Amino acid sequence: MTGGIKSFILISREIKIMLEWTGHFWNLLIYPEYCVDEVEDPEVNILWVLKRTLKNKIPDFVVCISLDDYDDLSPEARREAITKVKRYIRRFFSGSQCKLLGFAHRNSLYFCGNIPDLPTFKNYSSGQNEVYQRLHLLQSFLKRRSDITVSIGLAFLEEYSIKGWRLAATFTLGFGSIQHFLRVFKKVEGYPPKEFRKSKLVKYR
């Protein structure tokens, strides 16, 4: 086996491990209570990711993209759809705006990102609007180019902490199932979402 082929195989394995690992990370962040049997405490793993991967920079937003017809697809078609959606996500969001992209839960792709610092945008609100517009274009592009229908949840962090990050991720997930969202939100915050007035959530259908 030549050095070039060997290097390619090693890189391919590393990419596969990374994709599986990032999906697992989102499970740790959103459902830490279900990960207590892990070798490490979920919070330890999350802090490690924050320090080593994100360089201690908590993201500004979290995105969850759910493939609407995922359950009706064959295993091969599922893999193809996931690969396409990941490729297009990276086309619309790059660098600091697309971190920890991974497949989690039953049919969802997660990623998080930071809004570029000024003077890229006039203010933070214009940066938020840019994220919104890109997701809208991505959703339309997937339907037009590949006939893939997705539902997208977007949440901006109100609190720059692990708790705020977890809450934002929970928001994006929960609107795929209202009852599930209500249960998880109350478990995390201790009160129902109707009492929480400061959230900035954008939902596309």
Quick take:
This protein is of the alpha+beta class and 205 residues long. The chain contains six helices and five strands; from the N terminus they run H-H-E-H-E-E-H-E-H-H-E.
Primary descriptors:
single chain; 205 residues; alpha+beta; Alpha-Beta Plaits; five-stranded antiparallel β-sheet; 6 helices; 15% strand; disordered C terminus
CATH homology superfamily:
Reverse transcriptase/Diguanylate cyclase domain
Strand content: 15-25%
Would you list the SSEs in sequence order as H and E?
HHEHEEHEHHE
CATH architectural designation: 2-Layer Sandwich
Please work out how many helical segments DSSP would assign. Answer: 6
CATH class type: Alpha Beta
What percentage of residues falls in helices of 4 or more residues?
Answer: 40-55%
The parts where pLDDT drops under 50 for at least 5 residues are 3-19, 196-205
Give the distance, in angstroms, between the N- and C-terminal Cα atoms: 49 Å
Number of domains: 1
Structure description:
With 205 residues, the protein is α+β, with helices and mostly antiparallel strands. It has one domain (3-204): Reverse transcriptase/Diguanylate cyclase domain (Alpha-Beta Plaits). The protein is 51% helix and 15% strand. The chain contains 6 helices and 5 strands. It has helices spanning 3-30, 42-52, 75-92, 124-146, 162-174, 178-189; strands spanning 61-67, 99-104, 108-113, 150-156, 200-204. It has a 5-stranded antiparallel sheet with strand order 2-3-1-4-5. A hairpin with a 3-residue loop joins strand 2 (99-104) and strand 3 (108-113). The chain is globular and about 40 Å long. It starts with a helix and ends with a strand.
